[in-house]
Amino acid sequence: MTVINFGIVGLGRLGKIHAENLAKNVPGSCLIAACSLVEEELAFARNQLGVAKTYTTYEEMLDNPSLDAVVIASPSSFHVTQIRQGLEKGLHVFCEKPIGLTVNEIEQIIPIINLHSNQKFMLGFMRRYDTSYRYAKKMVEDGEIGEITLIRCYGIDPSSGMDSFLKFAKNGTSGGLFSDMSIHDIDLVRWFTNSEIKKVWALGNNKAYPQLDALGELETGAAMMALDNQAIAFLVAGRNAVHGYHVETELIGTKGMIRVATIPEKNLVTVYNEHGANRPVSKDFPERFKEAFIDELTEFVSCISSNRQPEITALDGLYATEVAIACKNSWLQNECIDV
Questions:
Q1: Which of the 8 DSSP states describes residue 211?
Q2: How far apart are CA 12 and CA 74, in angstroms?
Q3: Where are the alpha helices (DSSP H) in 58-141?
Q4: CA gap 71, 20 in Å, rounded
Q5: Is the pTM above the cut of 0.85?
Q6: Which run of H or E residues covers position 157?
Q7: Helix axes 13-20, 39-49, angle to 10 degrees
Q8: What is the pLDDT of residues 23-61, one digit of tens each?
Q9: Phi-psi region of 97 (alpha: psi -120 to 50; beta: other; left: phi over 0)
Q10: Is it the case that residue 175 has pLDDT exceeding 80?
Q11: Which residue from 26, 44, 39, 87 is spatially nearest to 62, judged by alpha carbons?
Q12: Which domains does the chain have, with CATH numbers?
């Protein structure tokens, strides 16, 4: 098997997941370089993952002549620039979502990606590689539930993460609830229906954490969407699930219905005690989508080795971001928005 030498930029919570998978869990990959501004994160790469070369600047890492590909897990505002720099160095590029924060900058990077057609570019919509979602997708493609009429998506982070998010929101700028969280569900809606979202109406509130009002952030948001094929989508996003990490999807069709993770179960264990019969649930996204993160990078390595383009493209990132921004604008303007 051909071994692909990777570098990674960004070693936060998600970056560490990708780094560990490249170093230990993805066949055909070798993590030889890592970049971060935080010395503790570089020490993790060296001491825990055996990364030979660590850097404090992305540009310096890209000059490593042994690199074949780069994974971008840095803050979203750097993605477009780092994609361009990686491609111009002749590297294959895997980038975490979102591809960019504005439609304009994404539209500017797409021609550059297309210009480097001999290199592979892939965006990190990992839910497409989750076993349960792929099973549901196959059932939809086989006509098991007929034509999809409505999709309902829940994506709610655990309330245990609110303190750290409040600190981040006070000191930095996120893409907002819809761009940071609902973008995965938006991609699923497009993926399952093979149709585009044309109109959105979004609402939001900060009931448990009213201090988010002054920061321009949302604790809970919801959006109703109309698709080109007349299907309907309903999204709920939030940061305050007291029971754990809750990601749930329902597909309603003309012949039946599919629900994915109605209860976000951790495993097949049921606990019987003084509290009754209880099913443990996933506590965070690294636990729920552990295998999906491995499988998406395994697919990226396979695309490089077999010289084929990934299923997920830059256009998927553009369309999902357009819809997420429309949801935010709908909430801010309190009106229905055309996409």
A1: T
A2: 8
A3: 58-62, 79-88, 103-115, 131-141
A4: 12
A5: yes
A6: strand 148-158
A7: 20
A8: 999 999 999 999 999 999 999 999 999 999 999 999 999
A9: beta
A10: no
A11: 87
A12: 4-119 (3.40.50.720), 128-291+320-338 (3.30.360.10)
Q: 17 and 293 in contact (C-beta within 8 Å)?
A: yes
Number of Cβ atoms within 10 Å of the Cβ of 149: 15
Sign of CA dihedral 64, 69, 70, 71: negative
Cα dihedral across residues 18, 23, 27, 28: positive or negative = positive
**Could you tell me the two tokens for 133?**
């979602």
The residue written with tokens 């201090």 in the block is 211
Q: Supply 160's token pair.
A: 């245990």
Q: Are the beta carbons of 289 and 130 closer than 8 angstroms? A: yes
List CB contacts of 95: < 8 A, sequence separation 6 or more. 71, 72, 79, 82, 83, 121, 122, 123, 124
Which value, to the nearest 10 degrees, does the dihedral of the CA atoms of residues 321, 118, 35, 50 take? 120
